[in-house]
Design a protein that fits this description.
Blueprint: E1 4-8, E2 14-21, E3 25-31, E4 34-40, E5 49-55, E6 59-60, H1 64-71, E7 83-93, E8 96-105, E9 108-123, E10 129-140, E11 159-173
Antiparallel strand pairs: 1-4, 1-11, 2-3, 2-11, 3-6, 4-5, 5-7, 7-8, 8-9, 9-10, 10-11
Protein backbone atom coordinates (compact mmCIF):
# COMPACT_ATOMS: atom_id res chain seq x y z
CA UNK A 1 0.00 0.00 0.00
CA UNK A 2 1.45 3.38 -0.99
CA UNK A 3 1.73 6.34 1.32
CA UNK A 4 0.39 9.74 0.32
CA UNK A 5 1.94 12.86 1.82
CA UNK A 6 -0.14 15.97 2.49
CA UNK A 7 0.99 19.39 3.77
CA UNK A 8 -1.04 22.15 5.39
CA UNK A 9 -2.11 24.94 3.09
CA UNK A 10 -1.68 27.93 5.43
CA UNK A 11 -3.65 30.28 3.18
CA UNK A 12 -6.76 28.12 3.65
CA UNK A 13 -6.23 27.11 7.28
CA UNK A 14 -6.49 28.72 10.71
CA UNK A 15 -5.37 27.70 14.17
CA UNK A 16 -7.27 29.30 17.02
CA UNK A 17 -7.98 28.94 20.71
CA UNK A 18 -10.60 30.32 23.06
CA UNK A 19 -10.31 30.92 26.79
CA UNK A 20 -12.70 32.41 29.33
CA UNK A 21 -11.74 35.80 30.77
CA UNK A 22 -13.19 36.78 34.15
CA UNK A 23 -15.57 33.81 33.74
CA UNK A 24 -17.98 36.09 31.83
CA UNK A 25 -16.54 36.39 28.33
CA UNK A 26 -14.31 34.56 25.88
CA UNK A 27 -11.06 35.75 24.31
CA UNK A 28 -10.04 34.27 20.97
CA UNK A 29 -6.46 33.96 19.84
CA UNK A 30 -4.71 32.69 16.74
CA UNK A 31 -1.35 31.28 15.82
CA UNK A 32 -0.49 33.05 12.56
CA UNK A 33 2.58 30.94 11.71
CA UNK A 34 2.23 27.15 11.61
CA UNK A 35 3.07 24.13 9.52
CA UNK A 36 2.11 20.52 9.41
CA UNK A 37 1.83 17.37 7.40
CA UNK A 38 -0.03 14.10 7.22
CA UNK A 39 0.88 10.76 5.70
CA UNK A 40 -1.99 8.46 4.79
CA UNK A 41 -2.35 5.05 3.21
CA UNK A 42 -6.11 5.35 2.68
CA UNK A 43 -8.43 7.87 1.06
CA UNK A 44 -10.38 8.33 4.29
CA UNK A 45 -7.22 9.22 6.33
CA UNK A 46 -7.85 6.40 8.85
CA UNK A 47 -4.51 5.74 10.56
CA UNK A 48 -2.81 8.76 8.99
CA UNK A 49 0.19 10.07 10.90
CA UNK A 50 0.04 13.81 11.62
CA UNK A 51 2.75 16.29 12.61
CA UNK A 52 2.10 19.93 13.43
CA UNK A 53 4.02 22.91 14.78
CA UNK A 54 2.97 26.49 15.62
CA UNK A 55 5.31 29.40 16.37
CA UNK A 56 4.57 30.93 19.78
CA UNK A 57 5.83 34.34 18.60
CA UNK A 58 3.00 34.36 16.04
CA UNK A 59 0.27 34.44 18.71
CA UNK A 60 -2.35 37.09 18.01
CA UNK A 61 -5.28 37.95 20.29
CA UNK A 62 -5.83 41.35 18.70
CA UNK A 63 -4.25 43.06 21.69
CA UNK A 64 -0.45 43.48 21.70
CA UNK A 65 0.01 43.81 25.49
CA UNK A 66 -1.88 40.55 26.03
CA UNK A 67 0.06 38.87 23.20
CA UNK A 68 3.36 39.92 24.81
CA UNK A 69 2.17 38.60 28.19
CA UNK A 70 1.23 35.26 26.59
CA UNK A 71 4.69 35.02 24.98
CA UNK A 72 6.39 35.74 28.33
CA UNK A 73 7.57 33.27 30.97
CA UNK A 74 4.19 33.70 32.73
CA UNK A 75 2.59 31.64 29.94
CA UNK A 76 4.23 30.11 26.84
CA UNK A 77 7.82 31.27 27.52
CA UNK A 78 8.53 31.77 23.80
CA UNK A 79 12.20 32.60 24.45
CA UNK A 80 12.83 29.06 25.73
CA UNK A 81 10.00 27.19 23.98
CA UNK A 82 9.51 28.81 20.56
CA UNK A 83 7.01 26.23 19.23
CA UNK A 84 4.16 24.07 20.33
CA UNK A 85 4.06 20.70 18.57
CA UNK A 86 1.73 17.79 17.99
CA UNK A 87 2.49 14.30 16.72
CA UNK A 88 -0.22 11.69 16.43
CA UNK A 89 -2.61 9.63 14.34
CA UNK A 90 -6.09 9.91 12.88
CA UNK A 91 -8.41 7.23 14.28
CA UNK A 92 -11.67 6.45 12.50
CA UNK A 93 -14.46 4.61 14.30
CA UNK A 94 -17.46 4.22 12.02
CA UNK A 95 -18.14 7.73 10.76
CA UNK A 96 -16.41 9.41 13.70
CA UNK A 97 -12.85 10.68 13.54
CA UNK A 98 -10.46 11.49 16.37
CA UNK A 99 -6.94 12.88 16.35
CA UNK A 100 -4.93 11.21 19.11
CA UNK A 101 -1.36 12.10 19.96
CA UNK A 102 1.18 14.03 21.97
CA UNK A 103 0.77 17.78 22.32
CA UNK A 104 3.88 19.54 23.61
CA UNK A 105 3.62 23.05 25.02
CA UNK A 106 6.38 24.73 27.01
CA UNK A 107 8.28 21.43 27.11
CA UNK A 108 5.35 19.58 28.68
CA UNK A 109 4.08 16.63 26.63
CA UNK A 110 0.60 15.22 27.20
CA UNK A 111 -1.56 12.88 25.16
CA UNK A 112 -4.70 14.59 23.88
CA UNK A 113 -7.72 13.43 21.90
CA UNK A 114 -9.37 15.91 19.56
CA UNK A 115 -12.61 15.58 17.60
CA UNK A 116 -12.27 15.71 13.83
CA UNK A 117 -14.86 16.54 11.21
CA UNK A 118 -13.48 15.27 7.89
CA UNK A 119 -14.91 17.50 5.16
CA UNK A 120 -13.74 15.34 2.30
CA UNK A 121 -11.36 15.56 -0.65
CA UNK A 122 -11.71 17.86 -3.67
CA UNK A 123 -9.71 19.17 -6.59
CA UNK A 124 -9.04 22.89 -6.90
CA UNK A 125 -8.95 24.95 -10.12
CA UNK A 126 -5.14 24.58 -10.27
CA UNK A 127 -5.12 20.79 -10.45
CA UNK A 128 -4.25 20.25 -6.79
CA UNK A 129 -6.00 17.70 -4.60
CA UNK A 130 -7.01 19.03 -1.18
CA UNK A 131 -8.66 17.64 1.93
CA UNK A 132 -10.40 19.59 4.67
CA UNK A 133 -10.77 19.06 8.39
CA UNK A 134 -12.31 20.86 11.35
CA UNK A 135 -10.55 19.87 14.57
CA UNK A 136 -11.80 20.72 18.03
CA UNK A 137 -10.94 19.86 21.60
CA UNK A 138 -10.28 21.09 25.11
CA UNK A 139 -7.11 21.09 27.18
CA UNK A 140 -6.08 22.23 30.63
CA UNK A 141 -3.47 24.97 30.21
CA UNK A 142 -2.04 24.23 33.66
CA UNK A 143 -1.18 20.64 32.59
CA UNK A 144 1.18 22.22 30.06
CA UNK A 145 2.90 24.54 32.55
CA UNK A 146 0.86 27.64 31.77
CA UNK A 147 0.05 28.21 35.42
CA UNK A 148 -0.08 32.01 35.71
CA UNK A 149 -3.20 33.00 37.54
CA UNK A 150 -4.80 36.01 39.12
CA UNK A 151 -8.03 36.62 40.98
CA UNK A 152 -9.99 39.86 41.02
CA UNK A 153 -10.97 41.60 44.26
CA UNK A 154 -14.45 40.10 43.83
CA UNK A 155 -12.95 36.61 43.58
CA UNK A 156 -13.31 36.01 39.83
CA UNK A 157 -10.61 34.03 38.07
CA UNK A 158 -8.94 36.21 35.41
CA UNK A 159 -8.07 33.37 33.00
CA UNK A 160 -9.77 29.97 33.06
CA UNK A 161 -7.78 26.74 33.06
CA UNK A 162 -9.78 25.20 30.21
CA UNK A 163 -8.74 26.19 26.69
CA UNK A 164 -10.75 25.28 23.60
CA UNK A 165 -8.74 24.46 20.49
CA UNK A 166 -10.36 25.11 17.10
CA UNK A 167 -8.51 24.36 13.89
CA UNK A 168 -9.77 24.58 10.33
CA UNK A 169 -7.18 22.83 8.22
CA UNK A 170 -6.87 22.28 4.51
CA UNK A 171 -4.07 19.99 3.31
CA UNK A 172 -2.61 19.65 -0.19
CA UNK A 173 -1.65 16.31 -1.69
CA UNK A 174 2.03 16.17 -2.60
Amino acid sequence: MSTTKWIIDPTHSEVSFKVKHLVISTVTGYFKSFEGSAESTSDDFDGASVNFSAAIDSIDTNQSDRDNHLKSADFFDAANHPNLTFAGKVVKNGGDYKLVGDLTIRGNKKEVTLDVDFGGVAGDPYGQTKAGFEIEGKISRKEFGLTWSAVTEAGSVVVSDQVRLLLNVQVVKQ
